UniProtKB/TrEMBL annotation:
PANTHER family listed in its UniProt record: SPERMIDINE/PUTRESCINE IMPORT ATP-BINDING PROTEIN POTA, SPERMIDINE_PUTRESCINE IMPORT ATP-BINDING PROTEIN POTA
Keywords per UniProt: ATP-binding, Cell membrane, Ion transport, Iron, Iron transport, Membrane, Nucleotide-binding, Transport
CDD domains per the UniProt record, alphabetical: ABC_Carb_Solutes_like
Record-linked PROSITE patterns: ABC_TRANSPORTER_1 (PS00211), ABC_TRANSPORTER_2 (PS50893)
One of the Pfam families matching this protein, by short name: ABC_tran
Organism: Pontibacter rugosus
GO terms for MF: ATP binding
Coiled coil: none
Residues covered by the ABC transporter domain: 2-232
Official protein name in the record: ABC transporter ATP-binding protein
């Protein structure tokens, strides 16, 4: 269980995280929706240990993470633009974290082989990142993040730059692998439909405050999240299409 207690961060006079608290059970996905600049990235970075909050605490199953450096937290921050080692092949990008952890060659071959299969990238194993499409690069970055089964995945608009079809494939892959490996995830998105699709629970962030909803009905029913407006829009489009056909 990931526990965040009263996390607070300000830049000069601007409060970016305002006493944020939440609990996320293992294997659950919290989808976080919020407008640009409301503090979502700051929240993920504070959880990952990539920036220090002014106050508050992050813990995993009762163990404080506050003095644990980012590399040892097992909480992986996945950027919107995939960060891969340009000089390494797809295979070696996936193997990197396992080599750092000094896993045996046999384990590395087995785990990377299985991951290549999961990601449907077997025939691209020996390519360098600049020989891949954007969606393929994103898959490698995703595989590299989960190959050593982190406690928490922190995803910051991970699929925003992908076309609609590739995005749908990545959402399905994300859900399948996160559930298979029982990984908890904070999933930041601007896309209402994506939030509803991936989330087990939901949150809306505004001006540094986070409101958590435990059901999709509560999330959809609160006018300030904008979810009901968007669903009304899509219903109207559907009716228009029916009317025209
Ligand atoms: N290093 C910094 N110094 C000063 N202000 C900062 C710094 N980093 C972020 N901010 C401010 O904190 C606020 C929240 O930024 P953050 O990146 O967390 O927003 P966000 O919700 O992720 O936005 P977006 O959806 O556009 O990525 C913004 O107003 C931003 O300008």
């Amino acid at each position: 269980m990931l526990t965040i207690q009263k996390l607070h961060k300000a830049y000069q006079s601007q409060t970016v995280l305002d006493q944020i608290s939440l609990e996320l059970p293992q294997g659950q996905i919290l989808a976080i929706l919020g407008r640009s600049g409301c503090g979502k990235t700051t929240l993920l970075k504070a959880v990952a240990g990539l920036l220090s909050p002014d106050a508050g605490a992050v813990s995993w199953s009762g163990t404080s993470m506050d003095t644990v450096p980012p590399r040892e937290r097992e909480m992986v921050y996945l950027f919107q633009e995939p960060l891969l080692f340009p000089h390494l092949t797809v295979f070696e990008n996936l193997a990197y974290g396992l080599r750092v952890r000094k896993e045996t060659e046999q384990e590395i071959q087995q785990k990377v082989g299985e991951m290549l299969e999961e990601l449907e990238l077997q025939e691209h194993a020996q390519k360098k990142p600049n020989q891949l499409s954007g969606g393929q690069r994103q898959r490698v970055a995703f595989g590299r993040a989960i190959i050593f089964t982190p406690r928490v995945l922190l995803l910051d608009e991970p699929f925003a730059s992908l076309d609609a079809q590739t995005r749908a494939t990545m959402q399905a892959l994300f859900l399948r692998l996160v559930k298979k490996f029982n990984i908890s995830a904070l999933f930041v998105t601007h896309d209402v439909k994506e939030a509803l699709l991936v989330g087990d629970s939901f949150a809306y962030m505004a001006a540094g405050k986070l409101q958590v909803y435990t059901s999709s009905e509560a999330f959809m029913g609160d006018p300030k999240t904008g979810v009901s407006d968007e669903l009304t829009f899509w219903n109207k489009i559907e009716q228009k299409i029916k009317y025209q056909s």
